[in-house]
Amino acid sequence: MPDRATIDMESWVCPAPLRGVPNIVMGHGGGGAMTGELIEHLFLPAFGPAADSQLSDSAVLAVGEVRLAFSTDSFVVKPTTFPGGTIGDLAVNGTVNDLAMSGAAPLAMSTAFILEEGFRLDELAPIAEAMGAAASAAGVKLVTGDTKVVDMGHGDGVYLNTSGIGVLDRHTDIRPQRASVGDAVIVSGDIGEHGIAVMSCRDGLEFATAVTSDTAPLHGLVAAMLGTGVDLHALRDPTRGGVAAALNEIARTAGVGIELVERALPIPAAVRDACGLLGLDPLYVANEGKLLAVVPADDADQILEAMRDHPLGAQATVIGHCVADHPGMLVTRTALGGTRVVDLPIGEQLPRIC
Amino acid sequence: MPDRATIDMESWVCPAPLRGVPNIVMGHGGGGAMTGELIEHLFLPAFGPAADSQLSDSAVLAVGEVRLAFSTDSFVVKPTTFPGGTIGDLAVNGTVNDLAMSGAAPLAMSTAFILEEGFRLDELAPIAEAMGAAASAAGVKLVTGDTKVVDMGHGDGVYLNTSGIGVLDRHTDIRPQRASVGDAVIVSGDIGEHGIAVMSCRDGLEFATAVTSDTAPLHGLVAAMLGTGVDLHALRDPTRGGVAAALNEIARTAGVGIELVERALPIPAAVRDACGLLGLDPLYVANEGKLLAVVPADDADQILEAMRDHPLGAQATVIGHCVADHPGMLVTRTALGGTRVVDLPIGEQLPRIC
């Protein structure tokens, strides 16, 4: 095994593909710029013509008259149980949400376990039970699976992959590319809870907080939003990399600027406190039961009303707009009227949490 | 981490669920009886009503007029490169083959990487290239993906999950349950190559052999077999646990006996030699480019002809039949006319190889 690669992020200026790093570093899994570079400069060229589009979180396929969404996600969270959830419900809800963000109703899910030799069955059972309960709650069937075991000392007890198939209405067309200047940006509720909950119980980082993970399946909320008949332009669940990563991606993909009103951001006091303690920006902290919606400004009130009628959207609120200025960039406008650029995270701002 | 569980397989007699073992052991990932017990006694009860049928290798879903096959597989092979292939082509072909065994044409695939911090990018790139080449060769698109990174010392460089969607003809009905007394059992070619190739280059076990992995996508061979119009009853790719595990599963599921003719088994001399050296039975050694077909005896010649016209079926041959005796059991008939029971493997007979 080669030596650990070290990167001084503060002074790092390397425009070259993959930033000249010869090895995988934690940042490649952070869902930010380094993950994007790995996909763009390694996976896509290597896959060649077999790769379809940009290997995004969820793909839409046409099969005869049927339109399907297809998504995959691996979960390597430590610890596997945290305030408000376990790796099991997280894995089910995460893939349900990836499907829901294209407007699909989840239909079927696969579950693949990579288990570490020596992992206790009485730790595994509650994780599997949480998966079953989450799947039942989301109305999705667990239809096929796989189990592998790796030598003790490798793995981390359990790594989990879920892949999912959802069904799309013929007319649904929700994608980041459709975000347009003037659109309102809505968040479905408080941000930062999942990341803070997981960090509060990580080895070496324990701290007291009342924050619990927001892990939840969002397809019902999306169905309620679709039920309004409003033309939803883009949806994203702000998981790894948080609101910052999700909105940066939408801004870059659509070629619009996005401006958030800092005062409008729903950040619970406990999340704000924990972020202060840890030196983190809540915009970069992961959520697992929230969505960001980009909708025509004139329809924002109608969408908000539908969202607030749903338990998972009760605190929905407009946090900003798409603008013509600074295309591809996310900025927040402060209470004093200044603006601050919120860049795409490079690698891991946080301990790995999803 | 609890102490390592030890099992004396020779003297082990424990009818209780999960054999009283409190921890995950390597055998739970071996694709044999212990994997089956983990699914039956832990995953299925825990998943509850969310679990559909028996969580088999591949599920068939009806969506409107469309019939889909859906499959998932994780790959944790060590080393990641071996004579005849890499974890990359193995992962693509493995999921193509799981889909093909239900008669489906592969349509789209997801790729999820769990990478170890410190893994060299110049080791990762050829693996990704092998995936792209295998997907192109199989005519399947890589449409969605995920990348996670785990701390150095965990993982094993790279773990890989592929999940796949295939499309089934309206009338295709290929499943183990349909194996019937009198049916012929066909194998598409030589057995034992993949397992021996991987073992020949494992740390601490290196030995000289000319055997290379048979990893290959089998959907084209299956399409040629379907093209005959013969009613194929059951198909299986004999991967983990080899021909023994695959045929035991068919026998148990269908409630038939299966009798193989030992002399008819196509075992290359080099595989036989290596198995002799290692004390292994070739029937338990993994294959990654072979299939077993259970077809009406009267149609066996027609199927063999179609198979032999395809490069991956050139050595196809009948190796046995389904019989009314000993339902649920697999036996081989020796050259001297005796029979030998070939049981479902309990756990790992082999180093982990897929």
Overview in brief:
Chain A is of the alpha+beta class.
Total beta-strand segments of chain A: 14
- CATH second-level architecture of the largest domain in chain A: Alpha-Beta Complex
The domain count of chain A comes to 2
The number of helical runs of chain A is 8
- Taken in chain order, the helices and strands of chain A follow as HEEEEHEHEEEHHEHEHEHEEE
Assembly status: homodimer
Strand content of chain A: 15-25%
Mean pLDDT across all amino acids of chain A: 90
Protein name (chains A, B): Hydrogenase expression/formation protein HypE
Domain PurM-like C-terminal (chains A, B): 181-326
Domain PurM-like N-terminal (chains A, B): 57-167
Family (chains A, B): Belongs to the HypE family.
Describe what you observe in this structure:
Two copies of one chain form a homodimer. In chain A, α2 (87-100) packs parallel to α3. Chain A has two domains: 57-168, PurM-like, N-terminal domain (60s Ribosomal Protein L30, Chain: A), CATH 3.30.1330.10; 176-341, Phosphoribosyl-aminoimidazole Synthetase, Chain A, domain 2 (Alpha-Beta Complex). Chain A is α+β, with helices and mostly antiparallel strands and 354 residues long. Chain A has helices spanning 33-47, 87-100, 121-138, 193-199, 219-226, 242-254, 269-278, 300-308; strands at residues 58-63, 66-75, 81-82, 85-86, 105-116, 141-150, 158-168, 184-187, 234-236, 257-261, 292-295, 317-323, 330-333, 339-341. In chain A, a hairpin with a 2-residue loop joins β3 and β4. The first copy, chain A, has a seven-stranded mixed β-sheet. In chain A, strands 1-2-7-5-6 form a five-stranded mixed β-sheet, with helices on one face. The two termini of chain A are 26 Å apart. Chain A is built from eight helices and 14 strands. Chain A is globular, with a radius of gyration of 20 Å. Chains A and B meet through α1, β1, β2, β5 and α3 of A and α1, β1, β2, β5 and α3 of B. Chains A, B: This is Hydrogenase expression/formation protein HypE. Chains A, B: Residues 57-167 form the PurM-like N-terminal domain. Chains A, B: Residues 181-326 form the PurM-like C-terminal domain. Chains A, B: Pfam families: AIRS, AIRS_C. Chains A, B: One of its GO terms (biological process) is protein maturation.
